[in-house]
Amino acid sequence: MDTILVVNAGSSSVKFQVFAVDGDGRLQRQLKGQMDGIGSRPRLRATGVKGDTLADRAYPIEAVADVSAALMVAGSWLRDELRITPMAVGHRVVHGGPDHDRPIPVDHGLVARLERYIALAPLHQPHNLAPIKSLLANFPSLPQVACFDTAFHRGHDAVADQYAIPYQLYEEGVRRYGFHGLSYEYIARTLPKVAPEIATGRVIVAHLGSGASMCAMRGGRSVESTMGFTALDGLPMGTRPGQIDPGVVLYLMAEKGMTPGRVQDFLYRDCGLKGLSGVSNDMRELLESHDPRAAFAIDYFAYRVGLCAGMLAAALQGVDAFVFTAGIGENSSAIRARVAEKLAWLGVSLDAGENAKHALKISQSGSRVPVYVVPTDEERMIAEHTLSVLWGANSNIKHMRAS
Ligand code: AMP
User: Number of structural domains, the chain?
Assistant: First the structure.
């Protein structure tokens, strides 16, 4: 059986999924896994398609000291115990920089170019690249494909792509890239199948998860994003503040004596819902909490989603549909209802019953702007990209194997 391994590597965990490829290029998910606690208390967990446990085991810290080692241990488990030897590996890479508007096969030259963007995504890019480098070193003939979170947004108009700063900085790469592109691309590909009536129109997609952003799409293409140079901008997130006056950063450095590294940690880890509430970064816990600060964090979140919807509606010069996706967007009828209240002026009226059922279409039939819930699947998007890059690069690729 031909399989594709999809890898999403972070600082302390590596998530992976395996997709089987049939003769017609259809992909079927086989399993999901995760190595957590890298460098502290490593633990491999994996489940099959029906949620059945395939692995749940701890490793000694020295066996899984870093992200690369985590992927090697997970790869050995796949090969030795499940007899899975992937024909290719697709990687989520957060930053493709200004030049990459599509997925691309990995080679040493690409890795060197992508390393230049570590400064633009310091908490993600090095960890995304580490397993790529170790697979290149250990399995040089194993095809790998890099799939970028920025790529889907690369076609933005110049007015959406630039900051009002000297052009030299734009040329150096200080641009409004936008992120969550693999999620938005999956939604754009899915809408013609599940909601063809809106797929070619002006659609605002709200990817509301631990990381959160919104994308304005016209005809299935991104025209504006709430995220910019880094994944800090836009909506408040689990631990990131979203839009913030750069003067606050200057204040933290000048008045609080915070170093750039400390400010970075603060903005990525201590702000957002966690910082606002002092209770949790997790929306489920906030919804369950009786603490007034938790309630305020929820109010703030819905308010900012509403504000950003106004901005994106202006970018699109009107809205034909609104789509919720990701952990909060797909699962929380309460948050969807709160957000919908903020969108009433746009012509949104929710159907409470359909919303409670997490139906595909959750707006009333008379709602001027229909509202949908469309589950995202970034891993499937990566697997699809990996396959099409491979088939584009080499029609005999189906017969290639990891050495
Ligand atoms: P993601 O990053 O897409 O996995 O989304 C994670 C976020 O979704 C966390 O804040 C979770 O609390 C939130 N979430 C998941 N399920 C629910 C739910 N049923 N109700 C509210 N929030 C949820």
Answer: 2
